[in-house]
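Support reply, case 0932

Customer input (verbatim):
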Amino acid sequence: MKVKIYTKDNCIWCDRAKGLLNAHSIDFNEVDLSNDIERQNFYKKIGDNVKTVPQVYIDDKRIGGYPQLKEWLNE
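Our regenerated output:
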């Protein structure tokens, strides 16, 4: 399973999502979107209706944010 999580600095929901993944011993690749240009490019790529982080992808499929990750993990 390939997990990628898009985050930014000082984001409690990002920290919680990473904590959930760690609690389930799931390795992940973190992409920091703290840089404004990088963040704008990311949001353009995934669409205007998504404006929050974290954004979690599992096997290249967008799961969503923290609540969706929690649901995906059956928590």
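We compared this against your earlier run and they match. Two observations from our side: The chain has a mean pLDDT of 91. The domain at 3-72 is CATH 3.40.30.10 (Glutaredoxin). Please reopen the case if you see a mismatch on your end.
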